[in-house]
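FYI - complex with VIB, inputs then prediction.
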Amino acid sequence: MKFTDRLFEAVHPIWEQTHMHPFVTGIGDGTLPKESFICYMKQDYVFLIDYAKLFAMGTVKAKSLETMTAFAGILHETLHHEMELHRQYAERFQITREELENTKATPTNLAYTRYMLSAAHSGSLEELISALLPCMWSYWEIGKHLKHRYPNSEIHPFYGEWIRMYSSEEFGSLTKWLLDLLDDLTEGKSERELRILEDHFLTTSRFEYMFWDMVYAGEEWKV
Ligand SMILES: Cc1ncc(C[n+]2csc(CCO)c2C)c(N)n1
């Protein structure tokens, strides 16, 4: 069994709940209040600034020029393509780039990015990939799920663009590349090592769920 098949089985209950989360279903059926979505976009923008650094660290830890080039490509894609989606949504609400960039990350957002950056700093390339993988894989799954469950969601005047981006073949092939790389890197690894990777993967999968929940609840610093 491929290591990523094992991860897919283990994460199934978390993803089932994620797909049913009211924030996610609200994007799908178009009922999510726009203010909630904008709050998510702002938190996600500062999340992506930190997250992009993981790809930069991937270029440093890569063991071949091919892998190094691929990580540099995803880094570019995130900064120029994915974050452009956020900048465009913000523009529709007259939110300036400066305001977007200066969004104060919530406790959950910070905990999530710090967890990944810490695993990436102190761990192997496999650890780095296992920690960052749910971010890409879960969005690809959500994009496909929403497109299938809500057939008109792709053409929704506000949320359609979001769904088209995350269900796109382009995002799918980036995720598949990462899955193949992790399967390659984990071949022949001991059960003890695999368990550490699975633990990173499940922890950040739970953080993905918490990110949706945090923007739905409107989490803020209390003092
Ligand atoms: C909390 C959160 N989790 C996942 C993504 C999705 N995402 C982030 S980077 C990347 C790959 C290439 O840009 C993808 C799919 C997000 N935006 N925010």
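Residues 44, 47-48, 51, 74, 77-78, 82, 135-136, 139, 171, 174, 208, 211 surround VIB (CB under 6 Å). The radius of gyration is 17 Å.
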